[in-house]
Design goal:
With about 240 residues, this protein is an alpha/beta fold. It has one domain: Rossmann fold. About 40% of the residues lie in helices and about 25% in strands. A 7-stranded mixed β-sheet has the order 3-2-1-4-5-7-6, with helices on both faces. The two termini are about 30 Å apart.
């Protein structure tokens, strides 16, 4: 395993992330992740629910989470947190390294984290930190990039200075969660590709007539085959 870049360099990268990333057409991916998380949350019957979002960026998802309870949100980037505070004053935002932020153990009912796992130096420690912050039987709702699909079927720009990139596959994700969680659901969603045979399968020319005949069943089949861009996992904390 290569040595991760210094935390200050990682922070600088994420400070400038909005300007670097711009609009690259990932709205569909984020929207699908958000819908799945909200669907899961709608089934959680916990009075005065306390939620933590790890890696919130500028807080775009926080208002939707706030519909389910009180929200605390963290991000490594002070610049992004400053923007989030101005936009969503109803949310408690904390800037800094999630692994060392002062947070009381076992205080949250649900932890949500979207596309953060691939950007942390020690993924197992990251998952264990989340477990420590969850109440007994608390829930983790996680989305992360699906390594085989990104590596085989997508051209992705190389990591920027300070950006950690360690994608996982479904088996690896299940293994990371297994120490502290019981996985309730783990699946791939949102088929997306810009090269290889998956690009052809996802093309409008191919998909339009298929969807006209079969609706979303073809998309659902691709997801069941593990061809989604995103892996999503719902997991419940278990006692040591």
């Amino acid at each position: 395993m290569t040595t991760p870049p210094p935390l200050t360099l990682q922070q600088r990268f994420w400070d400038s992330w909005a300007a670097i990333s711009g609009d690259k057409g990932y709205e569909e991916i984020s929207a699908r992740q958000a819908k799945i998380i909200c669907d899961w949350l709608s089934t959680v019957d916990v009075p005065d629910m306390k939620l933590l979002e790890v890696g919130c960026g500028t807080g775009w998802f926080c208002p939707r989470l706030a519909a389910f309870g009180s929200v605390t949100a963290t991000d490594l980037s002070p610049t992004q947190i400053e923007t989030a505070r101005a936009l969503f004053p109803q949310v408690q935002f904390l800037a800094g390294d999630f692994m060392t932020l002062e947070l009381e153990p076992e205080q949250f009912d649900v932890v949500v984290t979207l596309e953060v796992l691939a950007h942390v130096a020690d993924q197992q420690a990251f998952v264990e930190r989340i477990a420590k912050l969850l109440k007994p039987s608390g829930l983790l709702m996680l989305a992360t990039q699906n390594r085989p699909v990104l590596e085989r079927f997508n051209r992705i720009e190389p990591p920027g200075p300070g950006q950690i990139r360690r994608w996982v596959d479904a088996r690896e994700l299940a293994g990371l969660l297994s120490r502290s969680f019981r996985v309730l659901e783990l699946k791939s969603v949102t088929p997306r590709a810009n090269r290889g045979f998956l690009r052809l399968l996802n093309s409008r020319k191919v998909n339009y007539p298929i969807r006209a005949l079969f609706g979303d069943r073809f998309e659902n089949l691709k997801e069941r085959l593990g061809l989604g861009w995103t892996l999503v996992a719902l997991a419940r904390k278990v006692s040591p």
